[in-house]
UniProtKB/TrEMBL annotation, chains A, B:
The lineage of its organism: Bacteria, Pseudomonadati, Bacteroidota, Flavobacteriia, Flavobacteriales. This is Histidinol dehydrogenase. GO terms for biological process: L-histidine biosynthetic process. Belongs to the histidinol dehydrogenase family. The active site is at 322 (proton acceptor), 323 (proton acceptor). It catalyses: L-histidinol + 2 NAD(+) + H2O = L-histidine + 2 NADH + 3 H(+). Substrate binds at residues 233, 255, 258, 323, 356, 410, 415. NAD(+) binds at residues 124, 186, 209. CDD domains: Histidinol_dh (cd06572). Pathway: Amino-acid biosynthesis; L-histidine biosynthesis; L-histidine from 5-phospho-alpha-D-ribose 1-diphosphate: step 9/9. Its cofactor is Zn(2+). Keywords: Amino-acid biosynthesis, Coiled coil, Histidine biosynthesis, Metal-binding, NAD, Oxidoreductase, Zinc. The gene is hisD. Residues 60-95 form a coiled coil.
Length: 431, 431
């Protein structure tokens, strides 16, 4: 752990840096696999599933029977927990629905904006040590609410060619159209181009390792949109002398167990709480199953003391954390002042894991400082806004000359003509 | 002009293709200039301004005196037109403001979403033959409404080191923070990294030629967001036997004059209107000042007849036009059915140029089929959504077990601990 006391503002740039990731070597590999899948479709997908997942599959698509079996394998309490989480996520995301925006900007000039679903979306759920069925809920529930017609889920099979039953249960519950046993680069490429068995999609969502991250970036070169650029997960806790060091330590560790590259930061206006948190971390870390992973992240962590809340807030806004826990008493100060964050957890009884699973907010959030310019996944991520305008003959007579003057000044005569020809017609018809 | 009658659905994929653009040669040039500007700042900017714009500038920043002089050079009628357009754009974009979304997902679990401005944004306005002061309004007015603190505008100087006065007037009117005489790749790179005189921004907006397009893509590799991927502008008009061929021709030509690579498409259920439009285009084209440009676009244009409105609509949704004019009588059918379009113009008296300048809708729109997965620029483009949650002790007692079960099932023990430690504290305190 690195303790820093009252850092001067000219050191903040360095303190807000995330570990640099170089994707250039990977990009060549990714691009080559993309080209192969573009040309050879399912055959190439099968080849890479065999190489990367160590299994040869006859058929990538999960069958109804597999889904039914998965449901039988889960405990009732886990199924109930997943259902509770889904309901909360739906409640919060349904409330984000916006009404049609309609304005008569001038008499006879009616403008409106309507949102329409992105018809085909692809969701990627990583495999590996943690079966992220919670991410299935976070992506599929809003996609369904938004009205996306085709929702394709790709996730890698294990060595037996199976998918974790909780992932299948959550996917089925959310109304996923198709579940494909495809992982990594080959999954993103398959959804980008479409293959004989996987539909092409217009937007791809979901977390993943560095290969998936680069694959999503490469996908954007082929016309696919992505939810956001991804990086290692991160948490910043702000605390004062009233905060509970054991709670803070538990939150920092819940972030640290995600991966050795997780970012864990404590910002505090109390040197006492800083020291106590440090020793609490050591105590709690000792008994964690994922201790080895968490230890590495904690070794890189920063515990930063500031002598004023304003400086603390300024630093936090410069850092732009993915997850931001307000464990300080002065909650309103931080709530009102925060400008750059993915999701904010207010008060001592709001651990990050509440938002990770069940409070209702989305856990797919901007990392690596992207909270300065990106939203986390929300209902609008699955929609696009279309604008409309309808101008009456009277409306065009009111505004026509303004258009003609501006088009003329931009040297665009045909733009002007499109108005002039209509105004003349109205004049001839005595309207 | 290419006339196609009742194309079979298996030919639609080809018919909806845009001209392929290969950016790979350009990308090397762009990346090299980015690296130089990252290292050498203003000195490198000056070098490329000298190479590409043929002028050596002492100072890139536009002075207050230049702005005052610009205002004096413009006619009153143009200034008034610009002000009218700005007011309409403001009215429509102000109406897009969303209220805070707040939901108690379960008793004691309060979730809310608030939007905050992206604090630093960069706007790019191309130089060249058409001085796009209208684009200044389209980008700067919503940026100001959204509350962006720093709004930087870059636009290339002419050979005398000047900026078109209408661009300066519009920029001043909208409250741009800083206007820089920098164009092309060097402008995008300067705003990506920041230089001694140009601030680094978090999101870059605006149109440009292929160099600017690639530069914006490269900028995203350095943590900057962009409005959307850009391509040549495009218009699709749908018409039936009641439509006015002269109006349609004027609209298609207003699109065609943008550039030789502009996409111009007529979809119609009337072969008669198709033929009449064809001859109207020839008639109107002959007298256009930008005839040479428009002619090339028109040569590539497609006039497509369908024998049913449903087929026409399906094709239009597959094409996903940037601009879509409904010149057919059955307006409601197309309004309700359109799923993929940037901006829609309804009825015979709503030419595209109305939306380009003054109706109030934005003219920065998704091209190249991106209307399937991207919105045009709107108020939200300058904001990001942050979610918040606050859980009461009672709320955590209600939901805590659900979180514990899910965290355990994902194998994330520290996530579970963050809840368990709090529940135990509450138990010990008899709450």
């Amino acid at each position: 752990m690195n303790t820093i006391l009252n850092p001067e503002q000219n050191t903040w740039n360095e303190l807000t840096q995330r570990p640099t990731q170089s994707f250039q070597d990977i990009e060549l590999t990714v691009s080559a696999i993309f080209k192969e899948i573009q040309q050879k479709g399912d055959k190439a997908v099968a080849k890479y599933t065999s190489i990367f997942d160590g299994i040869t599959l006859e058929n990538n698509q999960v069958t109804q029977q597999e889904i039914t079996e998965a449901e039988q394998q889960l405990s009732d309490e886990l199924k109930e927990a997943i259902q509770t989480a889904k309901k909360n996520i739906e409640r919060f995301h349904a409330a984000q629905k916006t009404a049609k925006v309609a304005v008569e900007t001038l008499p006879g000039i009616n403008c409106w904006q309507e949102k329409k679903p992105i018809s085909k979306v692809g969701l990627y759920i990583p495999g590996g040590s943690a079966p992220l069925f919670s991410t299935v809920l976070m992506l599929a529930a809003p996609a369904k609410l938004a009205g996306c017609q085709e929702i394709i889920l790709c996730t890698p099979p294990n060595k037996e060619g199976k998918i974790n039953p909780a992932i299948l249960f959550a996917a089925q519950l959310c109304g996923i159209t198709q579940i494909q046993k495809i992982g990594g680069i080959q999954a993103i490429a398959a959804m980008t181009f479409g293959t004989e068995s996987v539909p092409k999609v217009y937007k791809i969502f979901g977390p993943g390792n560095q290969f998936v991250t680069v694959a999503k970036q490469v996908a954007t070169q082929y016309g696919v949109a992505i939810d956001m650029p991804a990086g290692p997960s991160e948490l910043l806790v702000v605390a004062d002398e009233t905060s509970n060091p054991a709670f803070i330590a538990s939150d920092l560790l819940s972030q640290a167990e995600h991966g050795a590259d997780s970012q864990v930061i404590l910002v505090t206006t109390s040197q006492e709480v800083l020291k106590q948190t440090e020793s609490e971390i050591e105590k709690q870390l000792a008994v964690l199953p994922r201790k080895t992973i968490a230890e590495q992240a904690i070794a890189q962590s920063r515990l930063i003391y500031f002598d004023s809340e304003q400086k603390a807030l300024d630093f936090i806004n410069e850092y732009a954390p993915e997850h931001f826990i307000i464990a300080a008493q002065n909650e309103e100060f931080y709530i009102n002042g925060i400008q750059n964050a993915g999701s904010v957890f207010v008060g001592s009884y709001t651990p990050e894991s509440a938002g990770d699973y069940t409070s209702g907010t989305n856990h797919t959030l901007p990392t690596n400082g992207y909270a300065r310019n990106y939203s986390g996944v929300n209902l609008d991520s699955f929609l696009k806004a279309i604008t409309f305008q309808k101008i009456s003959p009277k409306g065009l007579q009111t505004i026509g000359n303004t258009i003609e003057i501006m088009a003329e000044a931009e040297g665009l005569q045909a733009h002007k003509n499109a108005v002039t020809i209509r105004l003349k017609t109205l004049e001839n018809e005595n309207i």
